[in-house]
Amino acid sequence: MKDYAPLLRRTKLFSGIGDDDIRSMLNCLNAEVRQYRKGEYAFRQGEYIRNLMLLAEGRLHIQKEDYWGNLNILNEIRPGEMFGEAYIVPNSGALMNDVVAAEESTVLFFDTGRILTVCPSACPFHTRLIQNMFYTIADKNKGLVQKLSYMSQRSTREKLLSYLSDEAKRQNSSSFSIPFNRQQLADFLSVDRSAMSNELGRLRDEGMLDFHKNEFTLYC
Q: What's the rounded mean pLDDT across residues 189-198?
């Protein structure tokens, strides 16, 4: 297995745990590596999962397609972020959404039972890992609340400005890039792509922002 300890050390899940301890814990947690090509489904709606997962490389989209083929991107998973935690508890049911690789991606799978139960060797940092998992889940819930704030806006214009404003604040710059192309951004905000493109053009004409592909600059 590739040495993922330096990467994992920078994630919230393994925060405060040294490289050597992470390497030992990966064996303890029965860590498994899986790779996915761009456009490949990591999981499909209706499947059951029992592992906690962490994206090591690439990007994943949590998305849902309705009966008529309308796509909604619910979330994007970035390197270092964990996912699947909502389905690791008993009787949590099947997946409600698809997980698709937005680009070539590498995912680490961890045995949930090994995470929640202190191993016989009593890894000194196992308790820290459980604490980190709790804090990470709390952070992810905040992200879901943020997504709901975009969706609660009444118009395409308001959804765009709410999302772009938060991205500028998150990246601490008036000039920034977003992880979506036009269609993906429309799917993420649940708006019509043509209407969104027209609104972006109007915002640029009004001097509120400028953009090129996925690069944006906001003006006061």
A: 95
Poorest-confidence range of 13-17, 84-88, 147-151, 169-173? 84-88
Both 97 and 26 in one domain: the answer is yes
Tokens of 195: 């209407």
Instruction: Determine the Cα–Cα distance for residues 34 and 109; give it in Å rounded to an integer.
Output: 8
Q: What dihedral angle (degrees, nearest 10) is formed by the CA atoms of 16, 22, 25, 26?
A: 130
Domain coverage including residue 174: 153-218
Please enumerate in sequence order all residues whose Cβ is within 8 A of that of 13, keeping only pairs 6 or more positions apart, or say none: 54, 82, 129, 132, 133, 136
Residues 6+ apart with CB under 8 A from 170: none
CA neighbours closer than 13 Å in the CB half-sphere of residue 43: 24
Question: Is this structure's pTM higher than 0.90?
Answer: no
